Amino acid sequence: MYFSKISATGSCAPDKIVTNDDLSKIVDTNDEWIVSRSGIKRRHFSSGENASDLATGAAEEIIKRSGIDPLDIELIIVATVSADYTTPSTACLVQANIGAANAVAFDVGAACAGFMFGLSVADKYIKCGVYKNAIIIGTEVLSKYLDFNDRGTCVLFGDGAAGVLLERTEEQEGILCEEIGSDGFKAMALTKGFSPAGNVFNNVSCEADRSMKMDGKAIFDFATRSVPVSVKKLLEKSGRFTDEIDFVIPHQANSRIVEIISRKLKMPLDKFYMNMDEYGNTSSASIPLALNEMVEKGIIKKGSLCIFTGFGAGLTWGSMLVKF
Ligand code: UT7
């Protein structure tokens, strides 16, 4: 039986930093409100880099750190909801940029749970013996979709990319168990980029609406209810207990959401890694950005047992038990 282990991580964020004070010059908001309601202090915004550029930067870092020859990469999955193009996929653009001529490349869209869904798909390919390795990247340039007249939403999001190299192993390590799910009945709680079905033979508008629209309270309730349930199911399925877990790497949407999840799971808050103060909510990039930072700081070590858990538009959620 095969398992898939994370053998390298990498990230890439735009250099441009936008602080809460910067935002307060163009939006009716202030640093105190944003920090107390979300834990976000600043975010990185694109200076022109698109989702594929950031994803390529993350992939290059993964290649450099792992030493893998790009020609040996077998699968590239990019999770994004802010792709450069609807088609070609961002994964295909990354494939060409890094010279991974032998890889199969495609995108997955599951919003803030996108990285979890991408990891899940890659894990199956590896576990079934189809591929020996895969690069999975979450990348977002959400700044291009923000409505700066909607202060409840525009202060929360940021841009960035990060990912992992997943490799086949016969050791029982890497992705040990997963719990993922969707609830399309609540789809309208968070939407972005509506494209109407207008054409020259009907009277339907052709005008697309790019911006992000969110019922913040509905998402807050969903996250604080569904994530603890998802993590409990994951622990049950895997026969593990909370005190065996070294770290939880949650989707970096809001520090208050993480605090409630920690209380509901009766797990100490210091096991939950947070870096939304630096990046804001980067949707599918947020979990790998946090993971990469933990690896760089030496927090995650060989043998660390972690839970990744994400939630977002769709609605979607996903939790994974990962042994390093
Ligand atoms: O990846 C998943 C994506 N989304 C999320 O995770 C978002 C989940 N939701 C949240 O994080 C929270 O619901 C928010 C941070 C979006 C909002 O926090 P809240 O405590 O639910 O605030 P609220 O919407 O109830 O607004 C409270 C007040 C309102 O004023 P009034 O009506 O009480 O006078 C808002 O108009 O705060 C006001 N407000 C702001 N004030 C200053 C809303 N946004 C801002 C702002 N600056 N940026």
User: Ligands in the structure?
Assistant: oxa(dethia)-CoA
In N-to-C order, the SSE pattern is: EEHHEHEHEHEHEEEEHEHHHEE
CATH class of the largest domain: Alpha Beta
Query: In angstroms, what is the radius of gyration?
Result: 19 Å
Shape: globular
Structural class: alpha/beta
> In the CATH hierarchy, what is the superfamily of the largest domain?
Thiolase/Chalcone synthase
**Percent in helix:** 25-40%
What is the CATH topology descriptor of the largest domain?
Peroxisomal Thiolase, Chain A, domain 1
In DSSP terms (H or I, runs of 4 or more residues), the helix count works out at 10
Give the termini distance in whole angstroms.
18 Å
Largest sheet: 5 strands, mixed
From the coordinates shown, what is the CATH architecture of the largest domain? 3-Layer(aba) Sandwich
Strands of the largest sheet, in order across it?
A: 1-7-6-4-5
> How many E-type strands?
13
Mean pLDDT: 97
Unreliable residue stretches: none
Q: What is the count of distinct domains?
A: 2
Descriptive notes:
50% of the residues are buried. The chain has two domains: 3-172, 3-Layer(aba) Sandwich (Peroxisomal Thiolase, Chain A, domain 1); 176-323, Peroxisomal Thiolase, Chain A, domain 1 (3-Layer(aba) Sandwich). It has helices at residues 20-24, 31-38, 51-66, 90-98, 114-127, 151-154, 216-238, 255-265, 276-279, 286-296; strands spanning 3-12, 17-19, 42-44, 75-79, 104-108, 133-141, 159-169, 174-182, 190-194, 209-214, 247-250, 305-312, 316-323. It starts with a strand and ends with a strand. With 324 residues, the chain is of the alpha/beta class. Helix content is 32%, strand content 27%. The chain contains ten helices and 13 strands. Strands 1-7-6-4-5 form a five-stranded mixed sheet, sandwiched between helices. Helix 3 packs across helix 4 and helix 7 (216-238) runs parallel beside helix 8 (255-265). Helix 4 (90-98) links the parallel strand 4 and strand 5 (104-108). The structure holds oxa(dethia)-CoA. Oxa(dethia)-CoA binds next to helix 2, helix 6 and helix 7.
